[in-house]
Amino acid sequence: MKRTTLLAALAALPLCGCAQDASTTNQTETAAMSTNKTLVVYYSRTGENYAVGNITEGNTAIVAKMIAARTGADLFEIKTAKAYAADYDTCIEEAKKELRDDARPAIVGDVENFDEYDTVYVGYPIWWGVPPMCVFTFFEKHDWAGKTVKPFATHEGSGLGGSVRAIRKALPAATVADGLAIQGQTAQNDRPAAQSAVDQWLGK
Ligand SMILES: Cc1cc2nc3c(=O)[nH]c(=O)nc-3n(C[C@H](O)[C@H](O)[C@H](O)COP(=O)(O)O)c2cc1C
Q1: Residues in contact with ligand 1 (CB, 6 Å cut-off)
Q2: What is the pTM of this model?
Q3: How many CB atoms lie within 10 A of CB 154?
Q4: For a substitution probing ligand 1, which of 41, 50, 57 has the most ligand atoms within 8 Å of its CB?
């Protein structure tokens, strides 16, 4: 993995300045049994990544599960129909192209009964300063009017980058709170520090 490649990604950023399974398969059962109105939805990638090597659980996934555990929220993972490359450099190029094209990569599965949730935590890795385009695919599948959205991201230097601004633009009917940023390698390798950041953000 090349540090220079990530640095190139950081340099190219715009001047700005990441329970229960809620998937379609068991959503009906979950909705019927649960009175929970909070959802954690996230995208996270496994494979080779900057600073953490070859990972089998994504950095954002780790944070998403912490938030779901603390809040008792339902949990939904955004999965792309075509997985991004496990190879880091190849994925960097794929992501750059999707961003340039303003692409909406197809995703599989969905949250049913989305209208029942009042608060939605939205988690993602920072890719070229913003969330991966598959997160916008998810956004456009649903009606966000009246929802409170709480963004959280993992990153390796950009913090939230331009992601909260991009989310506010994409979801004008929602109230989008200020977000939480955790370094990916902290989430992956220092769980107590990541948990502490999550708890502070949640006010717990
Ligand atoms: C395609 C791609 C683009 C990235 N762009 C940035 C970036 O612009 N700024 C940054 O700080 N980190 C960037 N990173 C690092 C990721 O945000 C970081 O590794 C994150 O924790 C990955 O989360 P995940 O394991 O949940 O996918 C990038 C990583 C990839 C694979």
Answers
A1: 9-10, 13, 44-45, 49-50, 58-61, 91-92, 95, 125-129, 154-158, 184
A2: 0.89
A3: 30
A4: 50
- In sequence order, what are the beta bridge partners of 183? 155
Q: Look up residue 124 and give its amino acid.
A: Y
Residue in this structure with the two tokens 């709170």, named with its chain if needed: 177
pLDDT at 6: 59
Token pair belonging to 176: 């989008």
The residue nearest atom 29 of ligand 1, judged by CA position, is 127
Q: Which two tokens stand for residue 52?
A: 């953490």
Q: Tell me what pLDDT residue 35 has.
A: 55
Residue 63 CA, closest ligand 1 atom number: 26
The yes-or-no verdict on residue 36 having pLDDT over 80 is: no
Interval 44-70: pLDDT, tens: 999 999 999 999 999 999 999 999 999
Please tell me the predicted confidence (pLDDT) of residue 112: 84
Domains and CATH numbers, the chain: 3-202 (3.40.50.360)
Residue 5 has pLDDT above 80, yes or no: no
User: Ligand 1: which of 7, 13, 91, 127 to mutate, most ligand atoms within 8 Å of CB?
Assistant: 127
d(CA 120, CA 12): 30
Distance 180 CA to ligand 1 centre (A): 15
